[in-house]
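Page 42, continued from yesterday. The earlier attempt failed because a stray header line got pasted into the input along with the sequence. Redoing it now with the clean sequence only.
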Amino acid sequence: MVLRIRLARFGKKHSPFYNIVVAHARTARNSRPLEVLGTYDPTPKAPRPGDTHGRPWKDIKLDVSRARYWVGVGAQPSDTAWRLLSMVGILEPQFRVGQIQGKVVKAETAAKSLITPTTGAGQEKVEA
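This time it went through. Structure tokens are written below.
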């Protein structure tokens, strides 16, 4: 059965709190998971004392070694879990599927458009 790394919602009505869990793909969102990897609190907190930028922050607590294990054995993260795991440094960031002039652009095309070709050291320009 396919395993997913996803978020299970807890908390009150207007203050969500999520557990980052490993569960079977076909089970309900808040059903009993195989393992709880960490927590994510999306409500912005006041800036920390000593923070030079003074930006609000969101709390992510994650057992990195267990998350790497589950990704290594083939657990597929959801889109939101992928974003959180890439913020921690476990996965590479995904490119968002964008929309340019009413046309849907695939993720591969969006990734290629960010890479601009440059002249390498082995290539020489021929001047006329």
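Notes: The helical segments are 64-72, 79-88, 107-114.
Reminder to self: strip header lines before submitting.
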